[in-house]
Design goal:
The chain is an alpha/beta fold. It is built from 13 helices and 16 strands. It is globular and about 65 Å long.
Length: about 375
Amino acid sequence: MRLVDSIVQGAISGNASDIHVEPQERHVRVRYRVDGVLYEMMDIPKRLQPAVISRIKIMAGMNIAERRVPQDGRISVGTNRHTYDLPVSTLLTVFGEKIVMRILDKSSVLLQLEDLGFLPEQQTLVEHLITKPYGILLSTGPTGSGKTTTLYTALNRVNTGDNNIVTIEDPVEYQLAGINQSQVNVAANITFARGLRAILRQDPDVIMVGEIRDRETAEIAVQSALTGHLVFSSLHTNDAASALPRLLDMGVEPFLIASSVIGVIAQRLVRVVCRNCKVSYQPEERVLEELGVPEEDRPHARFVRGTGCPVCSNRGYRGRTGVFEVLRMSDSTKRMVLDKRSTLEIRDRAVADGMLLMQQTGLRKLLDGTTTPEEVMRVIYVEEE
């Protein structure tokens, strides 16, 4: 019991987002995910494996006798006047049951748009989009890129008390005051599509759909926007321009997409250099070339990195910030969708209309001393190649 408590408390005090308990052949490895990167924290003797796994399963309300079938549970932990919610999942591996615990701080989601990392011109555009009376605003990016936090922050901004905001999520990760949140329930046959249909009978002003996964959900979301509702949702695409062809691929008619989508926010998360041990340096010419820094700016380019200190646990980074691409549905972009143009053509058109690409946003974050070249290349450039 003390060992499991120390693992959980250590993760919370170390600002971890996930705890991995992984049985190996001769020991049990414990890793924390901090700022998006997994770090090995300790090895537990193999003889303690059954007791540790059983203790976590009891805390999460799982069946300790069932070892073969994956299970899901939840643990609630109170510490330092904060309440943490820990969704727990198990998976049988060749060396025993692997357990992953996510750490959700219920207070951390109450962010302002200013805290997310938008550049000033991007934030102005997002603030304009979320105050529209109707339409769909999409948030896109891979798993773990902060889409849910962005959507929750937008909901928080439009939650003025004189409107009805309803969500359908899978699962509800954080409870938001004054917002009616519902959850997908496969056992009861409540899918995103069925939940969204039910929401439309609840006199909503603003709707959030956790994720658009299929044609049925996409079409109902589009119809909701066209009938006077503001809809927030997410998609799994690599950049903002890809979201529009993705909806076409799902089978949504081009004229419906052009009429309903008002904007797309694509994002990634980069680690922020620790303020306590930040030092500046002159980068190599090769690095500047890879990053696409204009030749005239290269002689004056100064980057920063963390040397490592007790504040950041010698990692050189502390916290994360978003790197964004915000696409506005201009008349020219709508015509591109109607003509079923490719992602590349839509992206070029959006850039001509003033959209900053993620690479450009990342470069701005580098030059203002927020992050490092290694982070930008890890999170953005590798995926773009």
